[in-house]
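In this supplementary section we document a worked example of the pipeline. Step one takes a protein sequence of length 255 as its only input; no multiple sequence alignment statistics are reported here. Step two produces a three-dimensional model, which step three serialises into structure tokens for compact storage. The input and output of this example are shown verbatim.
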Amino acid sequence: MLLEVRNVTVCYDTAMLLNDVSLEVAEGELLALVGPNGAGKTTLLRTIAGLVRWERELRRGTRAGNITVEGEILFDGERIDRLPPHEIAARGLVLCPERRRPFRELSVLDNLRAGAYLVRDRRKVAETLEMVYALFPVLKSRSGQVSGTLSGGEQQMLAIGRALMTRPRLLCIDEPSTGLAPRVCRELFAKIKEISESGITVLLVEQDVRLAFSLSTRNYILSHSRVVAEGTSEELLKDEKVRRSYLGLAASAGG
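The serialised model returned by step three reads:
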């Protein structure tokens, strides 16, 4: 397995955000993680990327709430759960965060260059930039534009493009459809499929179950901080309890 999450529990003071969560992502998969708001999906991605432990270190010696993290995370067979975020990214596990978060005062090109800060080979940076421009032509046409003036869909393309500049082996994408029109979402998810087909493993967190399941090879459902179901899209959509209780979908025809 490329990624193994083993019995991860995360608590903020007395609030349990993840409760004994385990999942696996095989190399080459496009795996979707879905579930209701507040289930812990973003916390799981932030934990995988090392950001929760980093936040805990920042809070040491302050009056901010305590964070506890338990469990193991392995990437390509090696434990990464005690590494700082930049070392995890350098190994090829990269997070594209929710709500896009561009450097709003910088140009599109400078945002993309910032994504390549761990890549020392200038030739590789240039090659990756051209790959990103081929995937998202609008970014090339707006390379000199201040990123804060882009539309929501364009900012999401920029966020994914910036993550790709690190040349990831595993790309974790958090809620890419947030705030976007349906047509823009469909176009964006077609690009995510292209990324997966190019050989990059994708772990996708998404609220729109139907969109996510239309792309994914396998899925996990997170609810109340726990993994409650796992399977292919077809398997999960056939389960009436899963449809009604965890996916918010109506009963299937004949169900």
